[in-house]
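Let's do one together. I've listed all components of the complex below, 226 residues spread over two lines.
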Amino acid sequence: TQLLEQSPQFLSIQEGENLTVYCNSSSVFSSLQWYRQEPGEGPVLLVTVVTGGEVKKLKRLTFQFGDARKDSSLHITAAQPGDTGLYLCAGASGGGKLIFGQGTELSVKP
Amino acid sequence: GAVVSQHPSWVICKSGTSVKIECRSLDFQATTMFWYRQFPKQSLMLMATSNEGSKATYEQGVEKDKFLINHASLTLSTLTVTSAHPEDSSFYICSALSRGEGYGYTFGSGTRLTVV
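Okay, and this is what the predicted structure of the assembly comes out as:
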């Protein structure tokens, strides 16, 4: 069974600070996706990384896919209260199943 | 972009009754849909994979007789929680996989089920 270990599970920081969320697995994934979810809503896709070593930027968010395609990270620069939410990494496995990490509950205080 | 409509967004039912949740892909055909369950402050746990025209594949530990999945068309999958109990209360989310142009997963907005 493919598993994704996401850390940290909870993060509370002050506005302006930087943070990194990690997503690790012992398995290789064909792609990894990062989502953000608001309470009571479905997850919204932020980015998909496909190539080992790939780095993608989305404004203040930087996503990296490990060379071996087993791990990924999300780095947020100068976090803002609007970044508060649940961040989820997910890997696509055989049969198209999307397996999620445990999630990171981020709280950015003004 | 691809849109998935999930209905109802919330439902309250009495213990012992059954509840049906619908998941529709509005502008694309989804041969594969997925059903997830999510508890507060936790991640999404895959319950089953639904393939159009065939039986659903359930993840280990998920009771197929309790969570009935039907995927009778390329745009509709349903999840029926049978004989619901309070412990079935949760947030249920569906996802549809688009294999054509714009390949990817699109999620519904979720259904909050409360069994009283």
